[in-house]
Design brief:
It contains eleven helices and eleven strands. The chain is α+β, with helices and mostly antiparallel strands. The strands form three sheets. It has a six-stranded antiparallel β-sheet, covered by helices on one side. Strands 6-5-8 form a three-stranded antiparallel β-sheet, with helices on one face. It has a two-stranded parallel ribbon with strand order 1-3. Strand 5 and strand 6 form a beta hairpin. The chain is globular and about 55 Å long.
């Protein structure tokens, strides 16, 4: 999985690129570009590989991806199956503060925003629950032209600056100079997890995918992701369980979601779920149903 350099072409009348995509799955190659990228996932599930870290994504998640940060939105395996009927949908904004829009960011009035971007140089993850107006703001940039597009672009980042709930994509001291070999290794690990998370996964198996001994793999994974492999695998499984829980009305949905996500014990599932989400599966489901009822969904 080589890190592919991307050159984003700007038309003469634009300094911010607005892109909407709707297709079977996300672009399947690890890549980087000079631009910051702000992406709203409107439909689809999978894992984002960003620098030396991995994050589950689902509809409603928003990612700010830093300049030249190697990244890959890896759709779940079912999105690659023939005749699955599944597809992804996303809206993105691209901008380069060292490019044509750089003059705007050098204005005295933009000092706070530029400092904020530099403090979030690798980017972060959030979701629309923490910023309900964000989808409308992002889409408004797509529909605007001329000076109005810049006004709406600034509205987006004024809103982002006020966020209190964000998760860094990777550690602040991460160097974006990811080697080709490291990109390949992290890519293999990610692919293996997405294919096998619902089955029994042994440390020997995943270490073999990385061409390492189990002991060396544990040290490597912890160093590059900030968490143990077991913790990461559990996070993937719990995110998949959450997706199942919110898509069923079956009273036995909790146990079905647990087994579908790879847990063979309800007791263990409940314990891990609470450690990841901060509440029990039943409380999580009740909260989801309450919010949807309130919103009339």
């Amino acid at each position: 999985m080589k890190v592919l350099p991307f050159t984003i072409l700007y038309p003469d009348n634009k300094s911010v690129i607005a892109e909407r995509i709707e297709q079977p799955h996300f672009y399947p190659h690890l890549h980087r570009h000079d631009e910051y990228q702000l992406t709203l996932v409107e439909r689809g599930e999978g894992m984002l590989l960003a620098g030396n870290n991995m994050h589950a994504f689902k509809a409603g998640d928003v990612f700010l991806i830093g300049s030249n940060l190697p990244h890959l939105f890896k759709s779940n395996p079912e999105f690659f199956a023939a005749d699955s009927g599944k597809s992804i949908k996303a809206s993105s904004l691209y901008f380069n503060i060292k490019g044509t829009i750089g003059g705007l960011f050098n204005l005295p009035e933009m000092k706070m925003l530029k400092t904020w971007l530099q403090a979030n140089q690798h980017g972060f993850k959030t979701d629309i629950a923490h910023c309900p107006e964000l989808p409308k703001l992002i889409k408004s940039v797509h529909d605007a032209v001329g000076l109005d597009a810049l006004h709406r672009f600034l509205d987006v980042f004024t809103s982002l600056q006020n966020l209190r709930h964000t998760e860094r994509l990777c550690p602040a001291d991460y160097s974006a100079d990811l080697s080709e070999s490291e990109g390949m290794r992290l890519g293999r690990i990610l692919h293996f997890v997405m294919q096998r998370y619902h089955t029994h996964v042994t440390l020997d198996e995943v270490a073999a995918v990385a061409y390492m001994t189990p002991q060396a793999f544990c040290r490597y994974f912890k160093r590059h992701t900030g968490r143990s492999f077991v913790t990461f695998l559990n996070e993937v499984r719990i995110n998949e369980a959450c997706k199942s829980l919110t898509q069923t009305v079956n009273p036995d949905g909790i146990s079905e979601a647990a087994y579908k996500a790879g847990f063979n014990s309800i007791t263990n599932f409940n314990r891990v779920f609470k450690s990841v989400k901060g509440r029990s599966p039943r409380a999580y489901l009740a909260e989801f149903q309450s919010v949807n009822t309130y919103q009339g969904l």
